[in-house]
Amino acid sequence: MGSGAALPIRTARRERPDRRAALLIDPRNGSLLTPVVFVLNGPNLNLLGLREPAIYGAGTLADLEELCRASGSRLGLTVDVRQSNHEGDLVDWIQEARTAAQGIVLNAGALTHTSVAIHDALRAVGVPAIEVHLSNVHARESFRHHSYVSPVAAGVIVGLGPDGYDFALQALARRIARPDPSSEPITA
Ligand code: DQA
């Protein structure tokens, strides 16, 4: 079949942006901006694939970062992925997000359970952050049940593996597109 008349309609449908895509309008000139989300991974997540695969899976950090970038481009987000084994780096990046990002996906690894500094940084910047853990921390040792991140997070996703990062990015994209959910009309 050659170039049929039905094709342009189908193409137009496919090119319609994802309905979850975030929109940000530059107040200076009304142009559309692509929102930036930082995906921050903490200590030992560089060892994904090697480290306790029965708990964390066989995928590597590079696989996880690729998944995040792919989710970001589907959702209309620029995803900036970073990993560090050092608490201060995570604090610096959270502070950087204050002026450089509209959202944060944070897996602080073991620092989740110990870091008042990360708690304070998240509280200080006020950028919506979704806490993610690959494993279900609540089904593991009791020292993993407490999180310094959860009280200052917009949401928490645990135990869903790499999909948790995709869900977190979806949630942030929706939140960026509609920053104040309480202003939404009740339709049901
Ligand atoms: C983790 C859970 C933490 O308790 C642990 O220290 C990690 C990984 C997770 O993704 O399941 O390093 O954050």
Please describe what this structure looks like:
By secondary structure, this protein is α/β, with parallel strands linked by helices. It has one domain: Rossmann fold (3-Layer(aba) Sandwich). Helix content is 36%, strand content 16%. The chain is built from six helices and seven strands. The protein has helices at residues 7-15, 53-56, 61-75, 87-100, 116-125, 163-177; strands spanning 24-25, 32-33, 36-41, 78-83, 103-107, 129-133, 155-158. The strands form two sheets. A five-stranded parallel β-sheet has the order 4-3-5-6-7, sandwiched between helices. Strands 1-2 form a two-stranded antiparallel ribbon. β1 and β2 form a beta hairpin. α3 runs parallel beside α6 (163-177) and α4 runs parallel beside α5. The longest helix has 15 residues, at 61-75. Mean pLDDT is 87; it is low at 1-17. Bound molecules: 1,3,4-trihydroxy-5-OXO-cyclohexanecarboxylic acid. The site of 1,3,4-trihydroxy-5-OXO-cyclohexanecarboxylic acid (DQA) has 10 residues, from loops. Catalyzes a trans-dehydration via an enolate intermediate. This is 3-dehydroquinate dehydratase. Keywords: Amino-acid biosynthesis, Aromatic amino acid biosynthesis, Lyase. Belongs to the type-II 3-dehydroquinase family. Substrate binds at residues 107, 113, 120, 134-135, 144.
